[in-house]
Amino acid sequence: MTGNRQTSWAFADAYVAEDEALRWARDRARDAGLRSVSPGTGAALRMLAATVDAKAVAEIGTGTGVSGMHLLYGMRPDGVLTTVDPEPDHQQFARQAFRACGFASNRARFIPGRALDVLPRLADAGYDLVFCDGDRLEFLDYLAESLRLLRPGGLVVFEGVFANGRTVDSSPQPTEVLRLRELLRAVRESPELVPSLLPVGDGLLCAVKR
Predict the structure, then answer these.
(1) Distance between CA 130 and CA 188 in Å, rounded?
(2) Which of 14, 31, 42, 176 could bond to 70 as cystine, CB 3.0-4.6 Å?
(3) Helix, strand or coil, per DSSP, at residue 78
(4) Alpha helix segments (H runs only) across 1-136
């Protein structure tokens, strides 16, 4: 990659400034050893939520609330984020960060638990956007659930599909990367989806449900 391209990507990633509450949530994620979406990825999530005028969003992987705050910023003022994470302690950080941003408590529904146990309990065609940032080994299962959860015209979004460049690396790769390649093929070839792969952060795979 040329220096100019690296500089351009760095500029794009920092183009939308983050507020103090988002920076606080990032610090908590770093302290806990958790990945959080890049600022550029967060800005893309905010824009995508606004594009579909999202009132109901499902998030797989609460973390400390970085991605959730970006989604809430893009959603309608009466929108509700349903966010799922197996670690209730992490969700407490997210609650605190959401409050610091001024979001009312009824703007977010926190569900502790494993995603594949929780998602089947959510309403069919009840969501405008599903954001997947959980266990990459389960991404194909999240895709199947997302197709059920989304209304026509809704968006499914997967974070981290580049896997730090390993997805396109021809050398032998772990199962996690092989599953990501399967996901990329499944989304591209699905007649139910209109896909795009955005080169922000560690790769953001997006698709609109027909």
Answers:
(1) 17
(2) 42
(3) coil
(4) 3-13, 20-32, 39-51, 66-74, 88-100, 115-118
